[in-house]
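RECORD TYPE: inverse folding
INPUT: structure tokens
STRUCTURE:
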């Protein structure tokens, strides 16, 4: 069963690919992350995060205040997250201890750290 994840101490350890991949760590803290959905320009801590562990690894379900949601798969290739379903691609950027994730008109800020051996995510072409 999924449980709410607090975002204050939510830490995504962005790891590099290796022969033995490490799972990113997600810890408990506050239960919301800042987000701006449906084209809103204002980031507000109103998106709830649920952690779901399954056969394909760790998935984060981000619930929007309007009832919508987005699923992210936690990846270990330096990007941190990718969209788990749908055709849109997540654009990620790690800056100042935050993983900034944009998908279409939606934007999310996850507290994050990058392991020293993890590569920087490549900018979109």
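DESIGNED SEQUENCE:
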């Amino acid at each position: 069963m999924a449980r709410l994840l607090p975002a204050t101490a939510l830490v995504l350890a962005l790891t590099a690919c290796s022969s033995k991949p490490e799972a990113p760590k997600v810890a408990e803290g506050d239960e919301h992350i800042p987000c701006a959905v449906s084209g809103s320009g204002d980031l507000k801590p109103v998106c709830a995060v649920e952690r779901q562990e399954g056969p394909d690894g760790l998935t984060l379900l981000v619930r929007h205040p309007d009832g919508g949601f987005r699923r992210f798969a936690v990846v270990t290739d330096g990007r941190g997250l990718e969209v788990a379903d749908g055709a849109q691609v997540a654009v990620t950027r790690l800056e100042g201890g935050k993983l900034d994730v944009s998908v279409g008109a939606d934007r999310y800020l996850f507290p994050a750290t990058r392991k020293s051996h993890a590569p920087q995510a490549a900018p979109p072409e």
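NOTES: Residues 1-30 have pLDDT under 50 and may be disordered.
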